[in-house]
Structure formats: structure tokens, C-alpha cells
Amino acid sequence: VQLVESGGGLVQPGGSLRLSCAASGFTFDDYGMSWVRHSPGKGLEWVSAISWNGGSTYYAESMKGRFTISRDNAKNTVYLQMNSLKPEDTAVYYCAKTSDYDNGGLDYWGQGTQVTVSS
Q1: Are strands 43-50 and 57-59 parallel, antiparallel or unpaired?
Q2: % the chain with pLDDT above 70
């Protein structure tokens, strides 16, 4: 299993970023996918998840209305669109594979991509 995140960077408060995670080594459309973030101040924090076909999505309360998770099973890729970014969103964002078709436990992780929200 390989998960490769991209799309992180430096953005001003109120700005947007779109993260991508390219997956390989497993049958992508058999599994749900998640995004998790880690920051020194807050530690590890679950962000969002999406079911195998994109029919169900889940968000942490603080991300609802600002972040949107989606997936393209033809491209084996999951995305996280992040809008109205705040300094407290600064973190390393990880893509993770769930152990089932929906929002189950996480069994494989990517290497992460840094998101920095600062003026």
C-alpha cells in the first residue's frame, strides 16, 4: 500500500488549498479513506472520512462547512478541499486508508504534507 499526499504549502488566513492523495497497492474503491492532521499544539486530530463510493462523508466539527472531502475512483485519488483556512489549521496532513468500506479504523498512512496558514 502506498499513499502519497500533495498540495500542501503556505497560505494566508482565509485562503484555500486542495490536498490530493494518490493511492496504490490495493483495490481503492473497496475502502473508505480519511484525512488526519498533526500539529505540535493539538497533537493528532481526525479531519474527515469518505466511504468507498463517496456516498457518505464525515467531518470533525471544526471542519464542517470549510473542508470538503471527495474521491475519484477512476484516478485512485482522494482530495481535501480546504477553504476559509485559519492559523489553527496549520498542521501536517496525512491521508489514511480505512480498514473497511466506510469510516473504520485506519491501517495505512501516507508521509504527510505540510499546511501552514500564516500572514
Answers
A1: antiparallel
A2: 100
